[in-house]
Amino acid sequence: MLKLYNSKIIIAGTDEAGRGCLAGPVTAAAVILPRHFKNKILNDSKILSLKNRNELKAFIEHNATAYGIEHIFMEEIDKINILNASILGMHKALDKLSTTPQCIIVDGNKFKEYKEIPHECIIKGDGKYQSIAAASVLAKTYRDAYMEEIHEEFPMYNWKKNKGYPTKEHRAAIEKFGITKYHRKSFKLLPDQLKIDF
């Protein structure tokens, strides 16, 4: 079972999903869990089954002290770059918390100060601490749901399955059909960018 970071103060865990995708938003979540929160299957969302992620989403939303989710869309990613967009998403998710945290723990190694609240960056934090793992689950489930929704608009890219990640199938569809309003134009969408007509 993953640990609580510190049960004596109010901790918000934050994480994002979709950073390496070619299409769709980067989605961030922030979660504050109660002191005695326990869940045996909670872990880094990437290693959980779809069924477990969906069950955990409902469990976290029902049991969390507070949570917030934010999408940062393609135009903003192209304007400020993916790292800044990821951090902006985490800040905006933190803005949505109904309780103010006393400390923020962040998955990864990059963050910018948020409202003078102390923070710690933790590499692979989503596999170490419950609140970051909970944020990873919410970020992934909300982003996946968004990608499944826009799949209906452009089914040829199969976002329902690949969620916008750079799979061979996704790159082949970009080569064949070009790009959509959901693609990130600042990303290397094909090995040879000259083939894409913006």
Structure, described:
- The radius of gyration is 17 Å and the shape is globular.
- The chain has 2 domains: 11-144, Nucleotidyltransferase, domain 5; 151-188, no CATH class.
- It has 6 helices and 5 strands, in the order ββαβααββααα.
- It has helices at residues 50-63, 74-80, 82-95, 130-151, 159-162, 168-177, and strands spanning 11-17, 26-32, 66-72, 103-107, 119-122.
- The protein is α/β, with parallel strands linked by helices and 198 residues long.
- Helix 1 packs across helix 4 (130-151) and helix 2 crosses helix 3.
- The model has no long low-confidence stretch (mean pLDDT 93).
- One of its GO terms (cellular component) is cytoplasm.
- Belongs to the RNase HII family.
Topology:
Elements (H helix, E strand, L loop, with lengths): L10 E7 L8 E7 L17 H14 L2 E7 L1 H7 L1 H14 L7 E5 L11 E4 L7 H22 L7 H4 L5 H10 L21
Parallel strand pairs: 1-4, 4-5
Antiparallel strand pairs: 1-2, 2-3
Helix pairs in contact: 1-4, 2-3
Brief sketch in words of this structure:
This protein is an alpha/beta fold and 198 residues long.
- Output the radius of gyration: 17 Å
Which CATH first-tier class of the largest domain would you pick? Alpha Beta
Helical content class = 25-40%
Q: Quick one: overall form? A: globular
CATH architecture of the largest domain: 2-Layer Sandwich
What fraction strand? Answer: 15-25%
The succession of helices and strands, N to C, reads: EEHEHHEEHHH
Q: Which spans of ≥5 residues are poorly predicted at pLDDT below 50?
A: none
Mean pLDDT: 93
Spatial order of the strands in the main sheet?
3-2-1-4-5
**Strand elements, count:** 5
Distance between the first and last residues' Cα:
48 Å
> How many domains make up the 3D coordinates?
2
Q: What is the CATH topology assignment of the largest domain?
A: Nucleotidyltransferase, domain 5
Q: How does the helix and strand content classify structurally?
A: alpha/beta
Instruction: Give the number of helices.
Output: 6
GO cellular component, one term: cytoplasm
Family: Belongs to the RNase HII family.
Enzyme class: hydrolase
Function: Endonuclease that specifically degrades the RNA of RNA-DNA hybrids.
